[in-house]
Amino acid sequence: MLRSCAARLRTLGAPRWLPEGWRAPGSEPRAAQRSFSSEEVFHKDYAVPNPSWNKDLRLLFDQFTKKCEDGSWKRLSSYKRGCALRVKDFQTHFLDPKHMKEEQTSKAQLFTRSFDEGLGFEYVMFYSDVEKRMVCLFQGGPHLEGAPGFLHGGAIATIVDTTTGTCAVITGGVVMTANLNINYKRPVPLCSVVVINCQLDKVEGRKIFISCSVQSVDEKTLYSEATRYASASPEISVGSCCTCVTSAPLRTGEINVY
Amino acid sequence: MLRSCAARLRTLGAPRWLPEGWRAPGSEPRAAQRSFSSEEVFHKDYAVPNPSWNKDLRLLFDQFTKKCEDGSWKRLSSYKRGCALRVKDFQTHFLDPKHMKEEQTSKAQLFTRSFDEGLGFEYVMFYSDVEKRMVCLFQGGPHLEGAPGFLHGGAIATIVDTTTGTCAVITGGVVMTANLNINYKRPVPLCSVVVINCQLDKVEGRKIFISCSVQSVDEKTLYSEATRYASASPEISVGSCCTCVTSAPLRTGEINVY
């Protein structure tokens, strides 16, 4: 069952660019509100301010939202997970059913959006097509603790993976295999806001090279640096769609990002 | 305020070896049960089977538990976080108070233990001092999803960081700065069990090199490979204690691991 992920994206008419509210040609627009609370949760865009966001995060959000006004930057929407139908379709082709029971499937949620408001990953990503640059504004909540008072190294790796993976998909389309290389330089205080600057360094044939930095809001502290190597491909097999599948979960009529 | 983390560990009489139930000389043994439910949660050892563990994880746990009988292997305990007093002490010296409000501090939980039973990271680590090898048995729950049906790349990075970080602390003592390099080869099905084999490759002066693999239970599928470079040091400054603080949160009279 080596049906390609790329073929699915083509079917959906997926562009390389994933701006806020984008949907595939001919697809139905999403309902603004659903009658079921669970549906509301899954269709809610989480990449917008909520009461847990601190002053730094709100200020940065406002600054980048302003940059979006002339179209040079775009905010990327983010949801808890794809719709049930799409999930089932995806699993049929990529997952051995023995691994997952129906009960578990129904509980599945996107890792970075599976926390209650303010406790885990609070973030929003903005992308500039002109600059080939992505910025992720991130506030790591109290349930992401490593040592007392600091973010867990895995939480930093997660937001770095999320940002670089999304950047890879946007700039390179579907991506297969990946290497993530992170240098941890300083511990990140829990509940502080950091800015992840991510850019496409170069494209060599089907190879994509991305780098990013994790900095304090005032840019005086460099917490981490990371690089991501990935290989873009029009055909993705079951065994090598790691980056693709961790970077762009599919939804009805659109591609959402983390 | 550059009081070293290493000095703290020396004060506690911390060994490089962190077996189940280890405590510092002269320290009081932990109460088996506390009267407050929150205290019970923080003092509960989560590295033992619970109803969410599937058959594969239970079988592997039993196999490694048997290996522990002759003392060649040790199971590592794992808790939600350190005691309030230790946390406060740690923060005083390593964290600018402006970053964290009391309300946030009280909600802090170890990232990998902050999920409800079965939804997130279910894992247990065993270590062989003879073989200088660590094994982490890991079941990734439905709230760790990346693409539909698969683990998020960040969740894999997190359990890899946890395992290699703990291995670094055990084999090298206190560790400063770190590089984590992960090759994602195949996507990991959600709710399946994987085995992370981690070993100390070499020690050059104060430099520690660790490598690990993430494999299926039958060892037929290699999901990821990773390396970790770290530098052991007797003196850790605020700016470079990343690996140390994300690997070995302190508790009253003992050092717990992830």
Automatic annotation (TrEMBL), chains A, B:
Biological-process GO terms, alphabetical: apoptotic process; fatty acid metabolic process
Q: What is its EC number?
A: 3.1.2.2
Does the record's keyword annotation contain Transit peptide? yes
Catalysed reaction equations from the record: octanoyl-CoA + H2O = octanoate + CoA + H(+); decanoyl-CoA + H2O = decanoate + CoA + H(+); dodecanoyl-CoA + H2O = dodecanoate + CoA + H(+); tetradecanoyl-CoA + H2O = tetradecanoate + CoA + H(+)
Query: Ranges for the Thioesterase domain?
Result: 149-221
Keyword set for this entry?
Answer: Apoptosis, Cell membrane, Cell projection, Cytoplasm, Fatty acid metabolism, Hydrolase, Lipid metabolism, Membrane, Mitochondrion, Mitochondrion inner membrane, Transit peptide
Its membrane topology: Peripheral membrane protein
Q: Name one GO molecular function term.
A: long-chain fatty acyl-CoA hydrolase activity
Gene3D superfamilies, per database record: Hotdog Thioesterase (3.10.129.10)
Q: EC class of this enzyme? A: hydrolase
Cite the CDD domains for this sequence: PaaI_thioesterase
| Origin: domain of life | Eukaryota
Q: Name one GO cellular component term.
A: mitochondrial intermembrane space
| UniProt-annotated location(s) | Cell projection, Ruffle membrane; Cytoplasm; Mitochondrion inner membrane; Mitochondrion intermembrane space
Name the Pfam families for this protein. Answer: 4HBT (PF03061)
UniProt record similarity statement: Belongs to the THEM4/THEM5 thioesterase family.
Please identify the protein, giving its name as recorded: Acyl-coenzyme A thioesterase THEM4
* Organism of this sequence: Sapajus apella
